[in-house]
Structure formats: C-alpha cells, structure tokens
Design brief:
Blueprint (H helix, E strand, L loop, with lengths): L23 E4 L7 H11 L3 E6 L2 H15 L4 E5 L5 H15 L4 E4 L14 H29 L2 E6 L12 H21 L4 E8 L5 H6 L2 H10 L8 H12 L10 E4 L5
Helix pairs in contact: 1-8, 3-4, 4-5
Family: Belongs to the short-chain dehydrogenases/reductases (SDR) family.
Pfam family, one: adh_short_C2
Organism: Actinoallomurus liliacearum
C-alpha cells in the first residue's frame, strides 16, 4: 500500500511478441537505465534492429556491449551523437540508414532538465535546456523525416512530458521546452502525413531511474509520486511500452497525438 492509501503493486514486464520484427529503430539518449535505454531494449525484445545513440560515449559503449551480449551484434549498433550539433544528428541518421538499409522508427528521447526559479535563471541555463530538449528533438525529427520522405514510410515518436501541460516551480525552461515538443509534434505530423510518416509523442510524468534519484530531491520525488493515481512512479519500461505501441502498426491511424503515460493529463 502506498502513502496515499492506493495499492502500488509493481507491474510485471510483458514478453516480446515480435511487434517490431525486422524494423529499424533509432533511439537517442539511449545509454543508461532511463526511458531511452528501456525503449531500445523493448524494441529489441520485439524483434527490431536498433541503433542506440548518446552524447556520453563511455556509457554508450557499455550499453552496446550489454545489448550485443543479450541480443547479438547483428541486431544493435551504436553511434555517438550530441543532439545540439546538426552535424552529429545528420551523421547519426546517415549511419543508421547505411548500417541497416533504412530507418523505420525514430525515437527522439534526448532532453535536459534542471531546477531554477525564473528570477535567478541565467540565459545560459534557459538556452541549454531549450537547445537540448526542444532544439534536439527538432533536429532529429527533421533528419528522420528527410530519410522517411524518400522511403515513403516511417514513424517518429518524441518524448514530451506532462510538465508541458502543468505548472511546477523552478521548471520554466523545461516546461517551455516540453510544451514546445508537443507543439512541434502536432505541426510536423500534419506536414509528414503526405509522406506516409506518422509523428506522435509520449508525455510521461515520473519514470524512476538512478540518475533521476541523484539530481532530484527526495521531497520532490515523494510529492510527484503522490500525484499519481497508482501512488507510485512508472518504471522506464512502462513508458517504453507506450512508445513501442506508437511505433507499431497498431497505431496506424494515430498521428499528431500526445499520449500521457500518467494520470496527470489536464
């Protein structure tokens, strides 16, 4: 039982069912134990071939080694990428297409948070969060679209956040960036439809992983957990399951949507 009095039994991971068999998936910010890493793993479990990317090369190498050991070197590749660099983003999608022949799905997961009241926030803090979180998503969406337009098909899934809908102190920059990701997703989806490309987004709330624990106060984590209907945080793989759904043909008529993985949709 959670502190809210609501049962908080942990969910059980579901096995793969081949939902993405032979699809080629690119996932940014996929090194580590967060949503990106969980998404890469879930896509591999569903039979995809996956290109993982991250700005942290050492972590990326470790993640590649782990995934190769479990799923085989023929199913996974790694390409370092800083999503604030247009050259890096172009190189990522070119390398993925060259390695596997096409790109069926792009999961734009990279983002950067931080906490600062607006009155004390520097231009550098504001710009850095916006450049990684919104600018990076734009660059990756654009690069993926250029490949998918030529193919005549593809799916893009962006990682937004419920904070794009609701207010939270100290999060002006991050909330603005995530609201921007939502708007970008809706607008780009209208443009991409003529190419046979779907673009949607997920909006998680609290998906727990070790890095989040390091950079977030226990008080805030407790508060955010209490806001959830189940009285617990999401596991990263639970968010990844929704991303997988949006990547599959089961969501073939969905585009321009932002799907809340939380009870906090306004």
């Amino acid at each position: 039982m959670s502190e809210t009095g609501i049962p908080s039994t942990r969910a059980t991971p579901v096995p793969g069912h081949g939902l993405l068999r032979d699809r080629v998936v690119v996932v940014t910010a996929a090194a580590g134990a967060g949503i990106g890493g969980a998404t890469a793993r879930r896509c591999l479990e569903e039979g995809a071939r996956v290109v993982i990317s991250d700005a942290h090369e050492r972590r990326l190498d470790r993640s590649l080694t782990d995934l190769e050991r479990e799923f085989g070197a023929e199913s996974v590749a790694a390409v370092p990428c800083d999503v604030t660099s247009e050259d890096d983003v172009r190189a990522l999608f070119a390398a993925a297409a060259e390695r596997f022949g096409r790109i069926d799905v792009a999961v734009n997961n990279a983002g950067l948070g931080g906490t600062a009241d607006l009155v004390e926030m520097t231009d550098e803090q504001w710009s850095r969060v916006l450049d990684v979180t919104l600018g990076g998503t734009m660059r990756c969406t654009r690069a993926a679209l250029r490949v998918m337009r030529e193919q005549g098909h593809g799916v893009i899934v962006n990682n937004a956040s419920v904070i794009g809908w609701r207010a939270q102190r100290g999060q002006s920059h991050y909330a603005a960036a995530k609201a921007g990701v939502m708007a970008l997703t809706r607008c780009a989806a209208l443009e991409a439809a003529e190419y046979g490309v779907r673009i949607n987004a997920v909006a998680p709330s609290l998906a727990m992983h070790p890095h989040l624990v390091k950079v977030t106060s226990e008080e805030l984590l407790t508060e955010l957990t209490r806001r959830e209907a189940y009285g617990r945080y999401a596991e990263p793989w639970e968010v990844a399951n929704v991303i997988v759904f949006l990547a599959t043909d089961y969501s073939s008529y969905m585009t321009g949507e932002v799907v809340a993985v939380s009870s906090q949709h306004p």
